[in-house]
Amino acid sequence: MDDSSAAVAIAGLQVKRGKALVLPHLDLQVPRGEVVGLLGPSGCGKSTLMRSIVGTQIISAGEITVLGEPAGSVGLRHRVGYMTQEASIYDDITVKTNLSYFAKILGASPSQVPDIIERTDLGSVADSMARDLSGGQRSRLSLGIALLRNPELLVLDEPTVGLDPVLRVSLWELFTDLAAGGVTLLVSSHVMDEATRCGRLILMREGRIIASDTPADLLERTGTSTAENAFLALIQGTDEAKLPPAGKHRATGATA
Ligand SMILES: Nc1ncnc2c1ncn2[C@@H]1O[C@H](COP(=O)(O)OP(=O)(O)OP(=O)(O)O)[C@@H](O)[C@H]1O
């Protein structure tokens, strides 16, 4: 995959937040038209990476190309949708009015609103106040707002967090449908069992990417049957690679 065909191409990305070096040096290619899962433990840098991709994070070094343009370019404003963990929804207006309002401020066509309500399965609560929505409905409304621009790339930061398993499944089905329509989705989660729903997995740990593969290839390569075990096997591999040679390590251990 060359840089022009990738939805996202990152070379040598470094990000500091406060005094912490959160992403020391990161290279990544995200292919187009797939659901790509960004998985890793809490605090490993998933949100920081996503913020860098959508252009809301100050970076210290590196290059990020999104849909062929530099991350954060004005030209990407309508091509990239971003949904954060803090849903930006107005509680004291209805679902339908939220969507119409955001359509207006985003410069999107309000004629899309009924279609988005249907795609996000919010028909039964379209006239309900947003404050009365369940967690899953709120996530779907946030997603609906992100869909208003008809984005080619959707960056979704932990969209299924706090949802029950049934709602999680329905949201992942929606992601798969969107990808089938040509949208690229980068979806973060720290729930490893969501990995099987992705076309491709990016596993992160401590600001580094430890694998970027299809779920099937990842399991085969690590000789495991679940993403969680694959992650553990990869961690073990990287930790062992960091250890000093066996003899030296044993000697150090004996004197400790
Ligand atoms: N504003 C900030 N100032 C300093 N450090 C920060 C700031 N925001 C985040 N960090 C640190 O950066 C690291 C990565 O955070 P980030 O939110 O990217 O992780 P994450 O993988 O998305 O976590 P989670 O799954 O919990 O959302 C963490 O160690 C966090 O403490």
TrEMBL record:
<keyword id="KW-0067">ATP-binding</keyword>
<keyword id="KW-0547">Nucleotide-binding</keyword>
<dbReference type="InterPro" id="IPR027417">
    <property type="entry name" value="P-loop_NTPase"/>
</dbReference>
<feature type="domain" description="ABC transporter">
    <location>
        <begin position="8"/>
        <end position="231"/>
    </location>
</feature>
<dbReference type="InterPro" id="IPR003593">
    <property type="entry name" value="AAA+_ATPase"/>
</dbReference>
<dbReference type="GO" id="GO:0005524">
    <property type="term" value="F:ATP binding"/>
</dbReference>
<protein>
    <submittedName>
        <fullName>ABC transporter ATP-binding protein</fullName>
    </submittedName>
</protein>
<dbReference type="InterPro" id="IPR003439">
    <property type="entry name" value="ABC_transporter-like_ATP-bd"/>
</dbReference>
<dbReference type="InterPro" id="IPR017871">
    <property type="entry name" value="ABC_transporter-like_CS"/>
</dbReference>
<dbReference type="Pfam" id="PF00005">
    <property type="entry name" value="ABC_tran"/>
</dbReference>
